[in-house]
Amino acid sequence: MTTPAGTIFFLPGLGFGAAAAGPIADALDALAGGRLRVVGIDLPGHDGSPDAPNGSVAALADRAVQVIEAEADGGPFVIAAHSMGGKVTAVVTDRILRGRANVFGLAGLVLLAPSPPTPEPMSEDKRAEMLSWVDDGPISQGHASEFVAQNVAAPLGEAAARAAVEQLRRMSPLAWRRWLTEGSVEDLSSDIGVLDLPVVVLAGEDDDDLGASAQPQLLADVYPRARFVSLASTGHLLPYERAAEVADEIVRLWDATVPTAPQVTPEWGRLIASERTAPEARGFLAHRALADDPDYAPRVLSPEQLSMLRALADRLVPQSGTARVDLAARVDADLALARSDGWRNEGQPANVFAYRLGLDDLSALWPDDTDDQNATAEQNALIEGIISGELNEHQALGGDAWNGTMRQHWFDDLRTDLTRIWLSHPASFARIGYDGFATSGPAFGSVGYNTVAAGLRDPWEPVELGDLA
Amino acid sequence: MRTYDRDEIVDVVVVGTGAGGAPLLARLAGRGLKVVALEAGPNTDPDGFTNDEVEAPRINWMSERLSGGGDPTAFGTNNSGFGVGGGTLHWGAFTPRPDARDLRLRTESGVGEDWPIDHAELTRYVAEVERTIGVSGPTPYPWDPEREYLEPPVDRNAPADLMAAGCARLGIRATDAPAAILSRDRDQPHFGNRRSSQNLGSIHQGERYGTKATTANTYLPAAVADGAEIRPDSMVHGIELDAQGRVGAVVYRHDGKEYRQRCANLVLAGGGIETPRLLLNTGLANSSGQVGRNFLAHGGVQVWGRFDEQIRGYRGYPSSLISEDFVRPEGVDFAGGYLLQSLGVMPLNYATTVIRGAGLWGAELMNALDAWRYSAGIGINGECLPAENNRLVLSDELDEWGVPRALVTFTAGANENAITEHATATMTRILEAAGALETRVLARTAHTLGTCRMSADPATGVIDAEGRSHDIPNMWISDNSTFPSSLSANPCLTQMALSLRTADLMLR
User: Fold this and answer.
1) Which of A206, A468, B340, B478 could make an S-S bridge to B20, C-beta 3.0–4.6 Å?
2) 3-class state of residue A108 by DSSP
3) Minimal Cα–Cα distance from B459 to chain A, Å?
4) Angle between helices A279-289 and A84-97 (to 10 degrees)
């Protein structure tokens, strides 16, 4: 069997436990041959798990984070979540991206008919009916069967239907009631804001409130990178109704985000996840580790300028292999935030304008036939000439607004910006042997280094950084 | 914290809370004066600092300055503080004392300037600062047998070990550097527990455990305990004079609104860029025409050597070895000299320096970044002679507070270049003696000094030897803009001493 390359954590919907991950796990095994480990999570009050201390979504997220922290191995992972689990996942994701969970490696989300961070749309009649099912204790066989039947487009197979009903029957009535009266109606949207990571949202065309037509409106603002997939002849119980399609989309998201972005080894991931790293620092690293959006739309530069910047980034800060940081896109995003390094050369246009002028100017000069050996040599000569200042007298496009000295100074800024972005990625830290982020933990015990001599390391440091002192 | 009404005429308003403003604030408050400090940047609790180099610059003055001349100075993280604590939030805590010869450079060499201050008097204040903030260092100190450090030195890191080995082979004296890093836990009055050194190489990013002294964990809590008020996020941009031509109030912006604080005395302590910028913007205290002139930046050239072993100089106090053997090197044709310090630096800092200082790109750049962990550096703090045309003026571009941005022009002169050349050769020899496989020179300057210099003669400076404006009797300047010459010692310790001295002179 293949060693798993990563983990899929599964957060089930209302009434379902970790076992609801079963059909998806089977489908993933068939599809990915053991590449992905699936860890289902029993949320509080589900499948025999104890009830939460209160009815908030945060309390459900606490349990999910505990399990993820315990089960994560430092390698990459994706969270898949169904219905109620989707709302919990928004909270979990927010915590992870802020560094407020001791985990590292989140690559993206696969959400199945998720409940949104806003109050879940649900008719009062339906809420009242569902509440009535637990008036006298655990849900009855009949009502559980009715619930399953109401939420599928076509009847499940006998084994699946039985499994679903069995889980529903083990559900705590308190947890059921709390979700309907508290968790589902909480509005977490202002706490959570925007979660800018790779996401795919699957929903059925025959689902009501959380169906395919409703999801974009509910979630597009929360997950700006979400891709919405509509499943025909599908109700609400995607983990049972469409396990194969779900598995397909998990693999698709995985392949689009994990092999394409530089990864740290699990040992480094565990160090980032550990208490030695301050939550805020962990959050910065979690954001930087996310795969870039292949469809990134520039915010400050034109698409042509972005292309030119990508070509320059490839030469100035070369990355080998297919796992790359889209340095040009990240420069554009930084420019949109109007970040500055605190100074610029006299007469130099402000950063954004310098980038626009500089990229337009270089587009006119750039030898871009990449298959041609001569083009590479010409690019080298151009780059060297700009850095050394030899080309300062060379006519620049832009007239008085852009001369050769400006080009030279901008090129210094450009090389610095691209390099700092590349270098601040956690995989770059690991590559160059920097673990200083892990000296920012709580102020007790030894927070920094005991060993500072050449060739030696502390026990908590990654093994390749030296011999044990 | 005690607060004061804006219409109350407080005894003293201090603009800035770094090495220039804070010791003075504490001293004045301690003597019962009503004092208010206005700080442009935010107040940050210790756990609000991060060692992440991308995000850490929230403790730096990142509002753009414009830089010109033959050797444009880098601002931002290089030398500019922002927030309660000022530049001491990001300083390197390297605390050599000022050398007596440097205060008499003109008398000695015929160039540069003398300081109108007695070295022994200054040294008494230096020793007081060292006691208050906690400076560790070696006793005896090779270049000053009288000196005593109250705390033993902090650990040497790998670059320090290598520099020590190289120096030993060449007969150069070198020892543990004096540093404002605690080697023992301490209960800092009015602040609380400060931990002993954790061997953190990220002190320039802001340090959350109190191992490094800042004014925010020393003088400022003492000042507040004695009744000082500190107003963060308050950017002073105007000064009002009364009919007698004395300062009557300062005008500042806070949360987008304009406020005015009345005062009987004003102390400007915004540093070598913000103080002259404010004076040029208000047109005050400049009868000499010297405001903004004689901008000084220490020579800061570095040489890096690559070694076989993993050095990882981001561990440990970054400058844990010093040599003062070159404060007056023999057989040279330049005035003044330089200090040597071992160097370990953070990764983004190193990358920025190899890009800007050595012009690297592409595969060569990536190789240099991969070699960083095997690299140890040595750097200098070198004398910079004052020059009229190295100066700060106002540009025609406004910043976010509506104040014209500073334009600073700096070109290294023949003396600076000669020092850089000599130091580069010295550092290269040391690294080679230590076994470096190859060496690389990185150009750099440090600090922002001299733009409102002190002078005995009102025609040649902005303040007198006590720190008082030659023009406005109730305006004082207490920051590194007052340095007549750069000294070879790093400025912060000297500045804190000057700050106490100015406070005592104000209290007379």
Assistant:
1) B478
2) strand
3) 29
4) 110
Shortest alpha-carbon distance between residue A320 and chain B (Å):
11
Q: Residues A104, A220: one domain?
A: yes
Do residues A20 and A81 lie in contact, with contact meaning Cβ atoms separated by under 8 Å?
A: no
Chosen from B47, B67, B361 to mutate, greatest number of chain A CBs within 10 A = B361
Determine which helix (DSSP H) or strand (DSSP E) holds B254, and give its type and residue range: strand B247-254
Q: Is the pLDDT of residue B496 over 70?
A: yes
pLDDT tens readout for residues A113-150 = 999 999 999 999 999 999 999 999 999 999 999 999 99
Domain final residue pick, A426, A445, A462: A426
Query: Is A436 in contact with B346 (Cβ distance < 8 A)?
Result: yes
Quote the CA–CA distance of B426 and B326 in Å, as a whole number.
Answer: 9
- Asked whether residue A151 is domain-assigned, the answer is yes
CA-nearest residue to A420 within chain B is B348
Percent of chain B beyond pLDDT 90? Answer: 99
Q: Domain span at residue A323?
A: 299-426
> Å from B286 to nearest chain A CA?
24
Nearest-angstrom CA–CA distance, A98 and A369: 43
A16 and A80 housed in the same domain:
yes
Domains in chain A, number: 2
3-state SS, residue B120: helix
Same domain assignment for residues A332 and A413: yes
Indicate the CATH number for domain B10-46+66-507: 3.50.50.60
CATH number, residue A41: 3.40.50.1820
Cβ burial of A196 (10 Å; 0-12, 13-18, 19+) is middle
Task: Estimate the crossing angle of helix A84-97 against helix A57-71, to 10 degrees.
Answer: 60
Do residues A241 and A332 share a domain? no
Q: What is the dihedral of CA A213, A215, A216, A219, to 10 degrees?
A: 170
Q: What does the pLDDT look like over B323-347, one tens digit per residue?
A: 999 999 999 999 999 999 999 999 9
Contact at CB, B310 and A466, closer than 8 angstroms: yes
Average pLDDT over residues A215-238: 98
Residue A398: its pLDDT value, please?
Answer: 65
Q: How many Å separate Cα B377 from the centre of its chain?
A: 21
* pLDDT of A370 above 80: no
**Interface mutation vs chain A, best among B197, B355, B399, most A CBs within 10 Å:** B355
Matching residue, tokens 């803009």 = B481
- CB atoms under 10 Å from CB of A1, counted, come to 7
Q: Chain B contacts of A340, Cβ < 8 Å?
A: 62-64, 76
User: By CA distance, what is A449's nearest residue in B?
Assistant: B199
Average pLDDT of every residue of chain B = 97
Query: Is A435 a domain residue?
Result: no
Compute the distance between CA of residue A74 and CA of residue B220 in angstroms, rounded to an integer: 42
B126-161 tens-digit pLDDT: 999 999 999 999 999 999 999 999 999 999 999 999
In a domain, residue A460? The reply is no
Is A284 close to B54, i.e. CB distance below 8 A? yes
pLDDT > 70: percent of chain B = 100
Domain boundaries, chain B: 10-46+66-507
Three-state secondary structure along B122-158? HHHHHHHHHHHHCCECCCCECCECCCCCCECCCCCCH
The number of C-beta contacts closer than 8 angstroms across A and B is 177
Pair (A364, A234) in one structural domain: no
| Count of CA atoms in the C-beta half-sphere (13 A) of A466 | 25
A79/A98 Cα distance (integer angstroms)? 16
